[in-house]
Amino acid sequence: MDQDNLSVVVHSAGNIRLENRPVPQPGPNEVLLRMHSVGICGSDVHYWQHGRIGDFVLKKPMVLGHEASGQVLKVGSAVEHLKPGDRVAIEPGVPREIDEFCKNGCYNLSPTIFFCATPPDDGNLCRYYVHNGNFCYKLPDNVTVFYLSGRHLCLLIFCCVQNSQFLSVGIHACRRAGVTLGSTVFVCGAGPIGLVSLLVAKAMGASQVVISDLSADRLKKAKELGADFAVQVQREAPQELAQKVEGLLGCMPEITIECTGAESCIQTGIYATRSGGVVVLVGLGPEMVNVPLVNAAVREVDIRGIFRYCNTWPMAIAMLASKKVDVKPLVTHRFPLEQALEAFETTRKGLGVKVMLKCDKSDQNP
Prior knowledge:
alpha/beta; 7-stranded mixed sheet; about 30% helix; 20 strands
């Protein structure tokens, strides 16, 4: 192991740098990882551009990145389920204490939770990173055997496992929405989260899924991934777009998964959803939005939020291992870690779907 721990660090709004940091050492419950691949999330770009997301404000330099996979190099004295050489997916949220939320199985809501690349906690967009061993999930052996292919050295595996992070968002959203066999679903937004929500909804048994977006290219990708209907948003009023959705499905959807955070899309989701149905708000937009609350109330449309995810990693990896979902088509761009600034600019411009950075110097296969 060399001492080159190149890291992507945001110092303030608009100020992102590549710099070397010390290689950390694991504590008793931690593992030291050689990072393999890290995806760029919209939140990473937001911290870079604005220095904050809501109440999470950048006050000191912070390593970005939380959509990650890596290989175990060292284990702490109390870690028994992992060993050097294991390939793992990294769940970025780790409870700091066993509070009431942890006891209820909602550790994502704990106010003191550690979360990669959320101030003040550093992320894992670097060469070497230490993480709690209990939140590192070993790659199943059967997946390794299935994907192992010549010189690619399980590259496809790492792509899939790294993507278990944003797949987890789709799982948590669909669980909160109650997607089940025969559900009719409307997904607002065909970005990475909207597309994985589409994939998960289909895997959970949704009979029909309609998805909307401004981008014709992203809607084309959605159709390739299994969307039954795609609606390109023009300049319609929310009620008009809701009527288009109903016309395509032949009924109002039971469930709407809103992945944009845009006020007009939230409004559309409420108007579109069947009475007694559910709207899940995944996208984060302005703190205050105008919504047709009375319309939702008198029709008993439940509006539910989600915050990150919890207890989703085993399901995400199982879905990938069993080929219930295939997220590889979502990875459209790959860059070596040294080209992180170019990768961030690609994401900021909205090019492609998911941009990944390759952190391991010994494996730079495309």
